[in-house]
Specification:
By secondary structure, the protein is of the alpha/beta class. The chain is built from 12 helices and 20 strands.
């Protein structure tokens, strides 16, 4: 493995091993509560954190590792996993510690695709964070929606498909990850569009309800769907695909409480209800492509999507009256995302150079209420 420290493996190398379906045994040694919140798909778990830090290395005797298998040990930041890897190597096992731990893994990603005549949709998934972004290609042109990773990744996807990025756009001002859309628009030359609001401190083109953007032979149409945030906008592609951001998920709906008082959250829950009813009034065969998922994304190349019909049948809150919806949603508010105020402020300014994304974005996604 090509690493500066031969006893460590970086997140990109591990990502490629999983992408290429290479055999690797991932051993997670974090405390149980951290494991329950977020983990690497396909990883194995042992409740070893305290014992390893207390010097009880015998805990590693309790695991059964297949012969001739590379082992990658994982913890939150890479210290305890190093203890585990060192001990496994003493046993003659080829073992590496994941550099930067789960914080480093938060930037890892994989993809899945939909091809529909002249339209191709590449879903770019941050497996370590649950953020879903999209590269929409038609003819020789592309639109990138909700860029949450290094611009280089989207530029590479576009190049591989022979697309020029024409537009870069977000569904709303995000609170759980840093938007890379401004940087991507500058590097790609694509026009930056953002939902109509007055909070951003940099120049952008405004997209409003029912505005349309053409790329190749396809059309993106904006549907203002406020509630999660007041600028939240869904994008319909070719009257068939719905990029719903944090308004509607495959297993739930967006939270209406961030940066809001209790009274304001109730008001926004009412607005969200009406936005959801607006979406449910569309063709039930429309395919929802959400902005997040609340579980690690496996390296299976299976698109994360669901039809409006399927979502209506399985998400119970969509069957409630408006008053019941508000009551239930406000009773199910999850913990606030870590650093969300800092992230929002950085997204307002567009200046991401002063922070380490791995530090401010670490942690599971908490945008959905199911």
């Amino acid at each position: 493995m090509d690493n500066k420290d031969l006893n460590n493996i970086d997140s990109e190398t591990l990502r490629l091993l999983l992408e290429e379906e290479k055999s690797v045994y991932i051993l997670d040694v974090r405390p149980k509560e951290q494991r329950e919140e977020w983990f690497i798909p396909g990883s194995n778990y042992i409740d070893a954190y305290n014992r390893l830090n207390e010097g009880d290395l015998s805990v590693l005797d309790e695991i059964n590792i297949p012969e001739n298998t590379k082992v990658v040990t994982v913890c939150a930041a890479g210290r305890t996993s190093q203890i585990a890897a060192d001990e496994l190597r003493k046993k003659g096992i080829e073992a590496y510690s994941l550099e930067g731990g789960m914080k480093g893994w938060s930037l890892s990603w994989n993809t899945a695709e939909i091809e529909d005549n002249n339209l191709k949709i590449v879903q770019v998934r941050r497996t370590g964070k649950g953020c879903l972004s999209y590269v929409l290609g038609s003819g020789s042109e592309a639109i990138v929606v909700d860029a949450s990773l290094s611009p280089d990744i989207y530029l590479a996807v576009a190049k591989q498909n022979g697309w020029k990025i024409k537009y870069v756009i977000d569904t709303h001002i995000h609170a759980d990850h840093l938007s890379r859309s401004l940087a991507l628009s500058e590097l790609s030359g694509g026009t930056l569009y953002m939902p109509d609001q007055y909070k951003l401190k940099y120049s952008f083109s405004r997209i409003k309800d029912n505005d349309e953007l053409q790329f190749g032979t396809s059309v993106l149409r904006a549907l203002h769907t406020p509630g999660h945030t007041m600028d939240s906008t869904t994008y319909m592609i070719d009257n068939k695909y719905l990029l719903t951001g944090d308004t509607l998920f495959t297993n739930g709906v967006g939270r209406p409480d961030l940066k809001a008082s209790e009274a304001e959250a109730a008001k926004r829950a009412s607005i969200l209800y009406n936005s959801l009813m607006k979406l449910l009034g569309l063709d039930y065969s429309s395919i929802v492509l959400p902005g997040h998922i609340s579980r690690p994304v496996p390296f299976d190349h299976q698109i994360i999507s669901m039809s409006l019909k399927e979502i209506k049948e399985t998400v119970s809150t969509l069957h409630l009256s408006e008053d019941e919806f508000i009551r239930v949603i406000l009773s199910k508010i999850p913990p606030t995302p870590p650093n969300y105020l800092k992230i929002v402020e950085l997204n307002f300014s567009g200046d991401l150079n002063s922070v380490d994304p791995k530090e401010v974005e670490a942690g599971a996604n908490r945008c959905a209420i199911s």
